[in-house]
Design a protein that fits this description.
single chain, about 300 residues, mainly alpha, Tetracycline Repressor, domain 2, about 0% strand
Length: about 300
């Protein structure tokens, strides 16, 4: 019987190795979220300091490891619900490519490595990494089941990234950057919930309990409010932050931010792509070009425009 079962499974459908599955579970495409750790380095005029750049890179790698640890743990906790999701059921754990034991051991290994590297940068960065792990553990086990708090917990993870980027190089950055980070993270989070409701429809609540308390009109209104709030906060930042050039040349980046946010809003509501922000950033060419232009103009304004 076993031999017949083996023959019956097409060779092309047999899952690849465990190592490949563990790499996918680490979600390397999600590491783009940790690029925010470089924000304090750039906006504090420290980008050209080799020592501080290395510290920022180490902090970035630390958060890549701890965030990957949480993705692996979250997959282990959500394995039953993921099997009901049209896309998530193909992930290594729900598809059977790796076992539950593999996922848990991988989470412990990645978390320990990330924390070790964080504390190697300095005590503050290590504490931020530990705080991120604690927050995400709370999210995975409890907070994700509560409407609104689930998205605020995710946004808190982005704030901790920004704080860690500043503490890693011992600089103080404008509070406006934290406000903009919070608003943008909330926008991305509620856009993802919108996509989940759209894709899962009647089975949404069985996949994620909090989705039963959301509605499409509610999420449309929340995302619209956050779009306006993010644009307003960023605009105020460009001409009121004391750390920016006195000639207000940072305002040149406002049209790029406008286009980027509107482009993502379009992709969420017209192309149904809000479920994976990291993939949108890696695949949508207009958005990629816009982000690159924003980065180039920002660096030019900060480092060539004078203070």
């Amino acid at each position: 019987m076993n031999a017949e079962a083996t023959v019956a499974v097409p060779l092309a459908r047999r899952p690849p190795g465990v190592l490949a599955g563990l790499l996918v579970t680490a979600r390397p495409k999600q590491w783009t979220k940790n690029l925010i750790l470089f924000g304090p380095l750039v906006f504090a005029y420290k980008l050209l300091s080799p020592e501080l750049l290395l510290r920022a890179i180490a902090a970035f790698v630390s958060f890549c490891l701890v965030s990957s640890a949480m993705y692996a743990l979250n997959d282990a906790l959500d394995v039953d619900g993921d099997r009901q999701h049209p896309a998530k059921r193909d992930r290594p754990l729900p598809s059977g490519q790796i076992s539950l034991g593999h996922a848990l051991a991988w989470a412990v290994l990645l978390g320990a490595a990330g924390l070790g590297l964080g504390f190697a940068v300095n005590l503050e960065t290590g504490l931020c990494a530990a705080g991120y792990l604690a927050l995400m553990l709370g999210y995975s086990t409890m907070l994700k089941h509560f409407v609104l708090l689930d998205v605020f917990a995710i946004a808190g993870g982005f704030i901790l990234r920004a704080v860690a980027g500043a503490l890693a190089i011992h600089v103080v950055i404008s509070p406006w950057l934290y406000v903009c980070t919070l608003l943008l993270a909330l926008f991305l989070g509620f856009s993802k919930r919108y996509n989940e409701l759209l894709v899962l429809q009647d089975s949404a609540a069985s996949h994620r309990r909090a989705l039963a308390d959301y509605s499409m009109p509610m999420l449309e209104q929340l995302t619209a409010i956050l779009v306006a709030s993010t644009i307003m906060a960023y605009s105020l930042y460009t001409f009121s932050a004391e750390s920016l050039p006195a000639n207000h040349s940072m305002m040149l980046t406002i049209p790029l931010v406008l286009y980027g946010i509107f482009r993502y809003y379009y992709l969420v509501h017209k192309k149904n792509l809000g479920g994976a922000p990291e993939l949108v950033l890696l695949r949508d060419v207009p958005l990629i070009v816009d982000v690159i232009l924003w980065a180039l103009v920002s660096v030019a304004v900060l480092y060539l425009g004078g203070r």
